[in-house]
Amino acid sequence: MDKEKFYITTPIYYPSDKLHIGHAYCTTVADCIARYNRFAGRDVLFVTGSDEHGQKIQRKAAENGTTPLEYVTEIVKNFKLLWEKLGISYDDFIRTSERRQTQTVQYFFQKLYDKGDIYKSEYEGLYCVQCEAFWLERQLSGGNCPDCGRPVEKMKEESYFFRMSAYAEKWFKFIEENPDFIQPVSRRNEMINFVKQGLDDLSVSRSTFDWGVPVPFDPKHTIYVWFDAVINYITAAGMFEDMDKYRRYWPADLHLVGKEIVRFHSIIWPIMLMAMDLPLPGRIYGHGWLVIEGDKMSKSKGNVVDPLLLIEEFGADAIRYFLLREVMLGADGNFSRDALINRINSDLANDLGNLLHRTLGMIERFNRGVIQKGEEITPLDAELIALADRTIDDFERFMENMEINEALKTVWALIARGNKYIDETGPWLLAKDPAKAGRLNTVLYRLAELLRVVAFLVSPFLPFTAPEILKQMGLSAPAKFLLKDARGRDIIGGGAKIAGGAPIFPRIEQPAADTGTASPAPGIEPAEEITIDDFNKMRLRVARVLAAEKVEKTDKLLKLKLDVAGEERTVVSGIALHYAPEELVGKDVVIVANLKPAKLRGIQSRGMILAASDDEGRVSIIEAPGVKSGSRVK
Ligand code: MSP
What is d(CA 374, CA 591) in angstroms, rounded to the nearest whole number? Predict the structure, then answer.
């Protein structure tokens, strides 16, 4: 195997409760990075799992009248269900209660003990059960745990200690020689400051509970859950089980973790490996937290968001897209239903969905559903092709730097350019002139090629949608999406018959405020009832379009000159993506004649044209052909 390898991990989650959207965020980011690396041609090992030991789980199981193993086994089933629904492409799911893990943990413990790096002493300290962590008085925040803010308990017990203090200098040297080890830089600085305050030896065993890995030579002691947990990464690489695999994948290239556990990963874990004389991972990346409408998620606040329900309502790819696009990796991000719906409607339904469905609709209508190659390309086509090439390069650079939302932005800029290209080339006009059939084919072919590139580039983010786009285009999805296959400007060839299908991202209609009225017919959004007097306030009138032109520097606006019963009016209308100006001249349309005038892009607009639009982005103006201009519509 000569492919470069890439080993990436998520934290292993506590199966003490259901996972929430914050956990889903962390795993979605890791999945996107894993998928990108496969896409880039690397041989990826992607591991997630569950951190099953410790006092908290033991207590929870007892409260539920069951054993810890039975308790966590049920919860772990739900973890796996969530990951499946969210499209998480993990290669291995490690549970710390598995034998392979016990073996490695005991091996580490024994070896460090034999070496003198683990010794027995007595511990007196302040313990946070929630975080399974001991704290020093000076580390507390307002007397409480600095991580979770809960009260700490005074504990005194015999304990084994790991001689971390002996490694401070070695750690500093390593961090200096590997400036990219802890990312982002803000976390690196935090960790350096933390170690500068002095490294204490770490208590690594407990004798007050027994749900965990026993100390091999002193079984009344149970190995500290964090000592156990971080070792999962090397167990899953194959240590003991499969040494060939281990030699291939260890050390890990990236441990992606939340910001509050960077300390365990960038100080304790590397020092454990140094003491074991084992290679250290390539990078620890601390991502930010997802907050809910600006607030930390918590059961007591009742604002915990269940990702399974969201997936059911909006689909996995919409949730993935939101998480990856809205949050800048490393910074905290905000989740709200409104923001999610906005993203779905604007980026997914409008931009991506419209590009696909408009293109397929036109191929269907103008070319009986067959993609044809067309004739020579024009400079406009060449510009579109060059942008696609540049987008692929930018996308690759951003993803290699883990700038996920920048990578998405660049793909969406290409999508926007595609939509604009439709407006600029006006295929509906070309279709009216048989002499322009060759040009029409070229335009539709360029759009199909563009969509093919887009399908490839979105595959690490939208794994369910990427093959669906190709399927609707009548192309077969590759067994593996590969970046190198995204490139190319003439891949589809002529003759492919599009398959079409349902909208990939239907628009989400926001329900109107609850008015207490009876339910409307299925499929129609609820709205406030009005009286006939309300309706009569409106003056709907027939108007004849005298002239039409695009409003400069806008995509969507047309400026129309209308005749309404002999009076000339200017109306600005947002239908430029759907109608060419020439198509409208001479049409008898319907307007709201008594709408308050408004200024749009500096143009005074008097009235509004009525048009119908559907979920798939089709728009049709309402016409009254041949009815005298100025006639009332009621
Ligand atoms: N079991 C430990 C990790 C051991 S790794 C060797 C643990 N588990 S956890 O279930 O509490 O958290 C797992 C991960 O979820 C952490 O990286 C944490 O940052 C992340 N998140 C928990 N809530 C989160 C948000 N609200 N937002 C983003 N990530 C969050 O810690």
Answer: 40
Q: Is 290 in the pocket of ligand 1 (CB under 6 A)?
A: yes
Residue nearest to atom 9 of ligand 1 (CA): 13
Is the distance from the beta carbon of residue 13 to the nearest atom of ligand 1 less than 6 Å? yes
Residue 477 Rama label (left phi>0; alpha psi -120 to 50; beta): beta
The pTM is what?
0.81
- For 162, which DSSP code? E
Q: Are 81 and 124 in contact (CB under 8 A)?
A: no
Q: Would you state the pLDDT for residue 602? A: 87
Residue type, 375: E
Query: What's the 13 CA to ligand 1 centre distance in angstroms?
Result: 6
Q: How many CB atoms lie within 10 A of CB 260?
A: 13
Integer-rounded Cα radius of gyration of the chain: 31
Residue 333: exposure state from Cβ atoms within 10 A (0-12, 13-18, ≥19): buried
Residue ranges of E strands in 354-426: none
Q: Is the pLDDT of residue 521 over 80?
A: no
Q: Which of the residue ranges 127-141, 375-389, 554-568, 614-628 has the most confident prediction, judged by mean pLDDT?
A: 375-389
Over residues 263-322, the pLDDT tens digits come to: 999 999 999 999 999 999 999 999 999 999 888 998 888 899 999 999 999 999 999 999
Check pocket membership of 134 for ligand 1, CB cut-off 6 A: no
Cβ of 542 below 6 Å from ligand 1: no
Count CB-CB contacts under 10 A for residue 424: 12
Report d(CA 507, CA 485) in Å as an integer.
Answer: 31
Look at the chain and count its residues.
634
Question: What confidence score (pLDDT) does residue 34 get?
Answer: 98
Give the distance (Å) from ligand 1 centre to CA of residue 23. 6
| Dihedral (CA of 595, 596, 597, 601) sign | negative
Convert 82-114 to b/e letters by CB count within 10 Å (16 or more is b): bbebbbbebeebbbbbbebbbebbbbbbeebbe
Q: Is 323 near ligand 1, meaning CB less than 6 Å away?
A: no
Q: Atom 5 of ligand 1 has which residue's CA nearest to it?
A: 11
Contacts of 412 (CB under 8 A, 6+ apart): 347, 351, 352
